[in-house]
Amino acid sequence: MSGEETSDEILMAAYQAGNEAAFGELFARYSGSVYGFLVRRVGDRARADDLYQEAFLRLHRARATYDSRRPFRAWLFGIVHNLATDAFRSRGRAPEMAADDGLDRAGAAPSPERVATAREAVADLQEALAGLAPDEATALILARVEGLDYEEIGGVLGRSAGATKQLAYRALKRVRAAMAARGHAEES
Amino acid sequence: MTPPMECAEYGAWVMDVLARVADPLDPAALEHAAACAACRRGTEATKAGWDLFADVAPIAPPPALAARMRETVLRLIAEERAPATTSRRAASASASGRAATEAGWGATLQVPLAVTSAALVTAATLLLLSGLVFATALPRGHLFFCAAMYTGLLVGAFSWIYSATTVHGVHLDVAARVGILALAITLAASTACPELHVLAWWDRSAFGVFFTDHLGRGGSSLVFGFAYGLFPGFLAALFGGRLLAERPLANGLVAVAVVFLLATPVIYLQSAPFTSGVIAIWLAGTAVGTMCGVFGALRVRRRVRFAAA
After folding, report:
1. Residue pair B294/B240 in contact by the 8 Å Cβ criterion
2. Higher model confidence: residue A183 or residue B282?
3. Which of A124, B41, B144, B232 gives B182 a disulfide partner, CB atoms 3.0 to 4.6 angstroms apart?
4. Greater confidence, B147 or A59?
């Protein structure tokens, strides 16, 4: 074992001081999460590509404002969430939900039928996410896909952990209802 | 005895159970579920909704995009470290072995010292030329006044350049560099002008005649001022605007202010044959043109950086 890895907060402090290796490590840890979050929030790769670049530029510009007593992940996803929300607001419409499932990278080769079914389910899930309010979608993605706890997600959304759980609870029920309306079985 | 659970608390508990951080057999929650049919249904729907995400696979950025983004930020870090290193070296040489805290004091005093030195040089020049500034007929008074302003502004600008001052992410040194570049472009263009007064030359040119006919004298001066600020501001920020991408609004506005301040004496120097209204319009056009030029260049730099990275 190589021992405990350096915390995000310590890496961020080093990055604030101009340490390139610290940024490289943070980038390695969160580049994929940021990109995945953006694809799920905005629904198409081209816009996610632009926002991904803008997210890391914003992170770089705002790094002096980071307080190392705050969880880094909450701060980072706060930037990304605001970016995605601003993007929708500036375009004045809901996200376009092109199916983007990540199945190309999904482990052992399943049967073509299973892939087709899974693609359809993921596309419908994207549609269901698109029907949520921005905060609801962010809460669900961060909790269920990115693995943030509710304290952190509350920090992203500016809510208490309890209020964030209730938000996610309502959002899950709405997603489930939307999926049921699209014909996905209960046990899905 | 614990108080009965509310529906909102129950929902939060369900989320904790799904995240495996709460006891799924919490008596208060089970008691609430037994009494509340809506929450029982909600639990099933939530659990099913939670499971929908079970097969969601990670989505990685395209490797080329990720590599490009990483390199872009690493380059920004390296660029920002370069002037900071220069600044530290200068502080270190002047302090010859003093403690790092004293270098911090030096860095803190750089801006006030630069501004104070500029103000002192301006005042001294004005004093040397006293009596000639406010009571003398044009253009001699203009000339001395402009000489004083130039001296002070240039000293201030060069102080910033050589002290490589950056305050809260605002790169005053870069703004000074952009300003000096714009001034050089303006002076080169003014020198290349076949007439002493560039606005007089403009007024007699085909464009000047056209705009005067259609917009009047003021409109023509406004257009000229706009171009007068636009091109030097754009070119200077395009070639000298490194680091302005950080805090782009603040850095852009500071660069605009420096470019405009350095252009003002040139305009004032040429103001002798014109009315105050024309000069004011020229200045206004220059201010707007400078802003458009500098921010336009920053936008171009950003796009080119993305494309090239």
Report:
1. no
2. B282
3. B232
4. A59
Placement of tokens 């508990």 in the chain: B13
Backbone φ and ψ of B170, nearest 5°: -95, 115
Tens digit of each residue's pLDDT (9 = 90 or more) over B81-102: 765 555 555 444 444 444 444 4
The reported pTM is: 0.52
Contact B269, B135 (CB under 8 A): no
Q: What is the pLDDT of residues B138-184, one digit of tens each?
A: 455 566 667 767 777 777 766 666 555 666 667 777 888 888 888 88
Q: How many CA atoms does the CB half-sphere of A38 hold within 13 Å? A: 30
More confident residue, B65 or B151: B65
Return d(Cα B216, Cα B172) in angstroms, integer.
39
> What pLDDT, on a 0 to 100 scale, did the predictor assign at position B129?
57
On whether any CB of chain A is under 8 Å from the CB of B99, the answer is no
Side chain identity at residue A179, one-letter code: M
Residue in chain B nearest A18 by alpha carbon? B77
* Residue from the list B14, B45, B247 with its beta carbon closest to the beta carbon of A177: B45
Residues forming beta bridges with residue B171, ordered by sequence position: B166
Quick check: A151 contacting B, CB < 8 Å?
A: no
| CB proximity A23 to B under 8 Å | yes
Task: Tell me whether residues B52 and A125 touch, CB distance under 8 A.
Answer: yes
What are the respective helix, strand and coil percentages of chain A, to the nearest 5? 70, 0, 30
**In this model, does residue B124 exceed pLDDT 80?**
no
Say whether A188 and B52 touch across the interface (CB within 8 A): yes
Measured between CB atoms, does A168 come within 8 Å of chain B?
yes
Distance from CA of B9 to the nearest CA of A (A): 8
Residues of A in contact with B55 (CB under 8 A): 106, 118, 121-122
The count of residues in chain A is: 188
Q: Does B64 touch chain A (CB under 8 A)?
A: no
Q: Would you call A53 and B69 a contact, using CB atoms and an 8 Å cutoff?
A: yes
Q: Give residue B55's identity as a one-letter amino acid code.
A: D
The two tokens of residue A4 are 């405990």
Burial tier of B112 (Cβ tally within 10 Å: 0-12, 13-18, 19+): exposed
CA–CA separation, A152 vs A159, rounded Å? Answer: 10
Whether the pLDDT of residue A103 is over 80: the answer is no
